[in-house]
Amino acid sequence: MSSDLSDLYQHVILDHNRRPRNRGRIPTANRSAHGDNPSCGDQCDVYLRLDGDRIADISFEGSGCAISMASASLMTTLLKGKKADEAAGLYDRFHEIVTTGKEPEEISDLGAFAGVHAFPARIKCATLSWHAALNALRGDPAPTTTESHTD
């Protein structure tokens, strides 16, 4: 990765951490899920308003490290307006990026998380909100924990 691209990606993570998008509870949410990362203390609640199988609105609340909060913020911007199968596909792309370090062919904000693969404990931080969002999409009321996922 070039130094300029690395700087851009670092800026994306810092920006989403400092100024999270879609933070706060949606009063009209009809699905929600809680995620917990006991290894580092990250907590994330994801709120969805589904219109059929489309995510009409999405938000999160939580606390955690910069990677966790930036990932939750970016996730909400990417999933808003998507259908459930599109959301699952985006998670698969994101998961590949954070576990392998393989950057997407196109320059995208998802690529900002490629460096996470070098820090295996941070993979769980990056994927926590995504697991909670997928649980909410499935209507699964059980809290998700990073200990139950093999990221």
Explain how this protein is built.
- The structure is a single chain.
- The chain is an alpha+beta fold.
- The chain has one domain: Alpha-Beta Complex (Sufe protein. Chain: A), CATH 3.90.1010.10.
- 44% of the residues lie in helices and 19% in strands.
- It has four helices and four strands; from the N terminus they run αβββαααβ.
- It has helices at residues 3-18, 66-79, 84-100, 120-138, and strands at 31-37, 42-51, 54-63, 144-145.
- It has a four-stranded mixed beta sheet, covered by helices on one side.
- Strand 2 (42-51) and strand 3 (54-63) form a beta hairpin.
- It is globular and about 45 Å long.
- The protein starts with a helix and ends in a 6-residue tail after the last strand.
On the 0-100 scale, what is the average pLDDT? Answer: 92
Q: What is the total number of structural domains?
A: 1
Structural class: alpha+beta
| Level-2 CATH architecture | Alpha-Beta Complex
What's the arrangement of strands in the largest beta sheet?
A: 3-2-1-4
Number of helices: 4
CATH topology category name: Sufe protein. Chain: A
* Major β-sheet profile: 4 strands, mixed
β-strand number: 4
The CATH class turns out to be Alpha Beta
Beta-strand content = 15-25%
Return Rg in Å.
Answer: 14 Å
What string, H for helix and E for strand, traces the elements in order?
HEEEHHHE
Q: How far is the N terminus from the C terminus? A: 23 Å
Shape: globular
Low-confidence blocks of residues: none
The helical percent reads 40-55%
